[in-house]
Amino acid sequence: TTKFTSALDIPVEFVEKNVKLRGKLHRVTEKGLEVEHIPISIPFVTSIQRKWQAKGLLLVRLAGVELAPRGMAWLQQELKPKQMIWFQLLGREDLALECLVLVNKGRFLSVCLNEEILRQGLGRTARIEGLHHDSRLYWKLHKRLLRAELRALKKNKGIWKEESYSERIRGHIRDSKFVQTLKQFVSWLRSS
User: Fold this and answer.
1) Domain range for residue 182?
2) Which is nearest to 79 in space by CA: 104, 98, 55?
3) Phi, psi dihedral angles at 86 (to 5 degrees)
């Protein structure tokens, strides 16, 4: 029932047990998602506690994901302010939480944003900070993330999209020394 306003407020046991917390998204930043923790509510107790609860946002990062520039734009488009999300604690690094982030899509369906970004080709799989690399959970999650990345690679999505043959030829011609020299000569003629 306690409202966490800083990553340091969250007990170590919560992080070690990979507890899921609920929160309201405020904004997507370069550092991660800024989320207001929404504690479990007990009707009478919650109304009293609200008066003494501090204000503050938790910085939640997508564990195991290295975002591409287009990934940030996709997150900002996909997630709306005040949207409810669930985040499963995997680790804590300074003032940031490494988490699996779940978003409800419909009544009974939820999507793991970590996997969805990789499935769309908008990021790469990275080491999951905070989890011991020899734990079963680490390898289970890492395998899920790698599968999502492999799916994007097979479908040529996002950062894995390959150029067509004609695009590659145009690129080689455009980048050739002869064409570069010709462009410089033409611009010199125009300026003279």
Assistant:
1) 167-191
2) 104
3) -110, 140
